[in-house]
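> Could you send the Universal stress protein prediction when you get a chance?

Sure thing. Input:
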Amino acid sequence: MVDKLPASFERGTDGPKVIVSGLDGSDSSWRAVAYAAGLARRQNALLAVVYVQPLLTTGAALGAAPAVEATEEVARALEAELRQAVERMHGLHVPRWQFHTFRGDPYNGLVSAADELTADAVVVGASERAGHRLVGSVAVRLVKAGRWPVTVVP
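Output:
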């Protein structure tokens, strides 16, 4: 015999409402955004694509204005590339999406984004840097934080 669903259950209202995906321009981050877009489409969720502008190191502080402008230019280029990708999918159901930039290191920037945007899930690309196996990648740190379901896309 099949148990009845609780009275508070409503078909079609479960699942994430906001999915945050990190984008830094790497191949794995683009795959993560594509995967997150598919999730958002199937769940009718908002896709929030986040680029975290790196903080300046003390050595770069002497030329701070040009360095800040460079990271803002990267953000503009990524947003333009994302818009072109969405336009190429014309005719397909494209999820609602937004592009956000945050400043900081990638981990803290994504945590801030997920908190501010009240994310239900986070999707990131696997690190392509060899040193992250020793220190820990952003993806591993997000999983260990245990605050959201995290999907790591290779």
